[in-house]
Design brief:
The protein is of the alpha/beta class. The chain contains ten helices and twelve strands. The strands form three sheets. The chain has an eight-stranded parallel β-barrel with strand order 1-2-3-4-5-6-9-10, surrounded by six helices. Helix 2 packs parallel to helix 3 (72-79) and helix 9 packs across helix 10 (271-280). The longest helix is centred in the middle third of the chain and has 18 residues, at 95-112. It is globular and about 65 Å long. Keywords: Lyase, Magnesium, Metal-binding. Its cofactor is Mg(2+).
């Protein structure tokens, strides 16, 4: 289960050590926004070293620079020999960007002698206005697609918004992007990962975001500070009542395998409830 994905600046070995000791399920070693342009070559070497050192029990992802710039191939050349769990693709404009990255990964895996197709892709798919119009088309783009996430900061700049939040909540244009990302992930049959909470000193805002994300169907959430991990992991884990319900649903359908609908605790359940139950128990 990947509930929490913590960004780590690619040029900071100290922050990597701190992140590796956290309870995050995954670390995203960042070569994009957190690294100044003149520091990217040095950061690539540091990210390679981080990958080689590893962080026991954690997935190690690398966020490369956008494909339409001049840094993405150099980022991949540095990271891929150390076999990251996956690549985070920022500013993904649509299906063709994902397919282009998949072709690059084919080549880098072959050069490194890695298992073909072993590197996953987590795409951030709402960072430009144009990208919102391609969200319907990610299904079967590549078997590497692991999940979709969204972002509000770059999108705000792209549309010219003065801010993307009001009273601690995203405004409607950005809630639209969030909702479309969730639906796009469901349509593609992959994980929906919620964006970061940028309020570092507002634990109540983080908790609200994480609970809302889990309620709506997101299975993970990104973070930019280790202090956010505990709240994310708690909010995106089923509680005991939900687990008991899930076990009861699975048991009911196991006892009546041919049934389409059943009665459980005075309520009707059907096959979509069975799918939800399996997901809560980590079986789907």
């Amino acid at each position: 289960m990947t509930r929490s994905l913590l960004f780590v600046p690619g040029d900071s070995g100290r922050k990597f050590d701190h992140a590796a000791a956290s309870d995050a399920d995954a670390l995203i070693l960042d070569l994009e926004d957190s690294v100044a342009p003149d520091q990217k070559p040095a950061a690539r070497a540091q990210v390679r070293a981080m990958l080689e050192r590893g962080a026991p029990g954690k997935q190690l992802w690398v966020r490369i620079n956008a494909l339409d710039g001049g840094d993405a191939l150099a980022d991949l050349a540095a990271a891929m020999p150390a076999a990251p769990y996956g690549i985070v693709l920022p500013k993904c404009a649509g299906r063709e960007d994902m397919r282009q990255l998949a072709h690059y990964l084919d080549a880098f895996e072959a050069a490194a002698g890695a298992v073909p197709g072993s590197t996953r892709i987590l795409a951030i798919v709402t960072e430009t206005a144009q990208s919102l119009f391609g969200l319907h088309d990610y299904r079967d783009a590549t078997p590497r697609l692991w999940g979709l996430s969204w972002g509000g900061e770059d999108l705000a700049a792209d549309v010219g918004a003065l801010r993307n939040r009001d009273a601690g909540r995203y405004t409607e244009p950005f809630r639209l992007a969030r909702s479309l990302c969730l639906m796009a992930a469901a349509a593609a049959g992959v994980r929906a990962i919620d964006t970061v909470c940028v309020d570092l000193d507002a634990p109540e805002a983080l908790a609200d975001e994480a609970r809302e994300a889990y309620r709506d169907g997101f299975v993970g959430k990104m973070a930019i500070h280790p202090r956010h991990i505990g709240a994310i992991n708690a909010a995106l884990s089923p509680d005991e009542g939900q687990l008991q319900w899930a076990r009861a649903v699975i048991a009911a359908f196991a006892a009546h395998p041919g049934a389409g609908t059943l009665r459980l605790d005075g309520k009707m359940i059907d096959r979509p409830h069975l799918r939800l139950a399996r997901r809560l128990l980590g079986e789907d």
